[in-house]
Design a protein that fits this description.
Blueprint (H helix, E strand, L loop, with lengths): L2 H30 L9 H8 L13 E2 L6 E5 L7 H13 L8 E4 L3 H11 L3 E5 L1 H8 L5 H4 L4 E3 L2 E6 L2 H6 L4 H15 L6
Amino acid sequence: MSSGMSNDRDSIKTDLISVINDFSLYLSAQRKMGNTSLGISKPSEALINNWGMKSQPQTPFFFEGPENASIFILDSGTRFFKGPGGELLIKILAAMTLSSDAVFICNAGDAIAVHQKIDIISPKVIITLGTQAGQFLLKNRQPLEQFRGRFHDYHGIKVMPTFHPSLLLKHPEYKRQVWEDMKRVMAYAGLKDGS
C-alpha cells in the first residue's frame, strides 16, 4: 500500500472524528437550550452518546430464508442448519411439517438488524433457540428455564423461547420439553400436528 493511500485514510478518519465531535457538542448545546426534539435516529443518537466508550465487538448478523415466512427463528448461534445441532433442528422442523427453507432464521448478533428483519417479515410467531436469543429479544435476564415453554409478546407477535438443539444433543432429556413448546407453536400457527 502506498503511503499516499495511508495518509488519505488517516486524513478521512481525522475529519470524521472531528465532524462527530462537533456534532456531539452541537447536540449538547441544543439540549442545554431546551431543544430536545432534534429528529435524529436512535442509532445515530446512541453512536453519539457512546462516542469514545469502548464498544463490545458484535457478532456478525447472518440470516437465511424467505421474507414471507410465518415462522421466524432467532438462533443463539450462527451455524443454523449445519452440524449435529443443525441436523436436529431440521428434524424438529420436519416433525412440525416445515422444511428449513420455509422458515426465516437469523442469529442474535445485531439488535438493529434483527428488529428490522422482524418488522419486514412480520411473522406470525417467533421461536427463540437458546438462552442468548430468548434473553436478547425479550430483554429478559432470567435463566431460560424460567421463561421458556410459554408464549411471550414482542410488539404483538407471539414468541416461544425454547432450548437450543445443540443443548438437546448433550441433554436428550429436554427433547420432550422442546416438542411440547413446538406443539404450542404449531397450534397457534395452524400447522398440522405431525405427532
